């Protein structure tokens, strides 16, 4: 999209260049951009003339809700299944769980999502086909959205689609970490003390094995953000993934740039949270001004 068209009157072109700061030298434009970047003044959309921060902030919470629900499902089921598979090593549960997880991981999200839509929405009519809420019922706030029963009906299928695709990764990492921890000396000492297997598994083994999964969770956020583009487009979910596709198709560069920036902030924030969780899960790790020790 060409915002300042050569067909415009010369005076109009000059006014628009002044409005966008294009009449200044490139180095000055760059420093103005950096100042506005930290002040969260990301300009206006070329298409709707709305402020980019207003557009992106609304879509950000929609994406965060979907990504959080999908990753919560993935981590909860994956960690639980990994613990059981490690405890029942080489059993039918272990082999079956590994096969199912790898099948889910091999199926692209758009294939899984289409199957769920065709089976549970179009054929059985158990869930709506897309969107976050019925047409004409847009809530005033995020809390109003969470109180809508229609929202919870619509979030099920995209959550399952995201959760199934990423399930194998934390499950297999947790299984391998548990197997490594179960061979440690302090586990043998706990068994020698006569502690119940359930206590050994959850209180001693699982907590230490979680470190690998916590590291993985921050990395998974970056992959999940990329996967949101497909899932949100498939289920007509008004999030940042769908916004990214729309802004790229319409050459709405300020909105596309703001979307990438918010996604980068999200990934960096999750990495920071991971460092904090490390010190909680493993008392041997401390956080100081010099970083993790």
Structure characterization notes:
- It is a single chain.
- The model has no long low-confidence stretch (mean pLDDT 80).
- Helix 3 (52-87) packs parallel to helix 12 and helix 10 packs parallel to helix 11 (240-249).
- The protein is mainly α and 293 residues long.
- It has a two-stranded antiparallel sheet with strand order 1-2.
- 73% of the residues lie in helices and 1% in strands.
- The chain has helices spanning 10-20, 26-38, 52-87, 92-106, 109-123, 142-146, 149-166, 168-182, 185-192, 197-234, 240-249, 253-281, and strands at residues 287-288, 291-292.
- The protein has two domains: 1-39, no CATH class; 51-292, MetI-like (MetI-like fold, Orthogonal Bundle).
Based on the model shown, name its key terms.
2 domains; 293 residues; 12 helices; MetI-like fold; elongated
Briefly summarize what is shown.
The chain is mostly helical and 293 residues long.
Main beta sheet: strand number and arrangement? Answer: 2 strands, antiparallel
Please identify, by name, the CATH architecture of the largest domain: Orthogonal Bundle
Q: How many strand units?
A: 2
Amount of helix: over 70%
Shape summary: elongated
CATH topology title of the largest domain: MetI-like fold
Low-confidence stretches: none
- Rounded to an integer, what's the Rg over CA atoms? 24 Å
Strand order of the largest sheet: 1-2
Q: What share of the residues does DSSP label as strand, in percent?
A: under 5%
What structural category do the secondary elements indicate? mainly alpha
Mean pLDDT: 80
Q: How many helices? A: 12
CATH class of the largest domain: Mainly Alpha
CATH superfamily of the largest domain: MetI-like
Spatial separation of the terminal alpha carbons: 51 Å
The ordered H/E elements are HHHHHHHHHHHHEE
Number of domains: 2
């Amino acid at each position: 999209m060409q915002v300042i068209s050569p067909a415009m009157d010369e005076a109009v072109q000059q006014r628009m260049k002044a409005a966008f700061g294009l009449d200044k030298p490139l180095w000055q434009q760059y420093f103005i951009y950096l100042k506005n970047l930290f002040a969260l003044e990301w300009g206006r959309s070329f298409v709707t003339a709305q402020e980019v921060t207003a557009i992106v902030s609304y879509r950000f919470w929609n994406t965060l809700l979907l990504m959080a629900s999908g990753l919560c499902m993935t981590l909860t089921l994956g960690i639980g299944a990994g613990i059981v598979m490690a405890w029942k090593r080489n059993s039918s549960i272990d082999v079956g769980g590994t096969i199912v997880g790898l099948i889910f991981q091999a199926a692209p999200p758009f294939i899984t999502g289409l199957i769920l839509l065709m089976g549970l929405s179009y054929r059985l009519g158990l869930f709506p086909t897309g969107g976050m809420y019925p047409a004409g019922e847009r809530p005033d706030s995020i809390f109003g959205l969470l109180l809508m029963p229609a929202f919870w009906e619509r979030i099920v299928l995209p959550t399952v689609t995201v959760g199934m695709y990423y399930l194998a990764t934390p499950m297999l990492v947790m299984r391998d970490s548990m197997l490594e921890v179960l061979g440690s000396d302090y586990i043998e000492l706990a068994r020698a003390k006569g502690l119940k297997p359930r206590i050994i598994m959850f209180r001693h083994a699982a907590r230490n094995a979680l470190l690998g999964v916590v590291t993985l969770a921050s990395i998974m956020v970056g992959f999940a953000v990329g996967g949101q583009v497909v899932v949100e487009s498939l289920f007509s979910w008004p999030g940042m993934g769908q916004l990214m596709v729309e802004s790229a198709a319409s050459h709405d560069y300020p909105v596309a740039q703001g979307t990438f920036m918010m996604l980068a902030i999200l990934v960096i924030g999750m990495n920071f949270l991971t460092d904090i969780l490390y010190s909680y899960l493993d008392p041997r790790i401390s956080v100081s001004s010099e970083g993790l020790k």
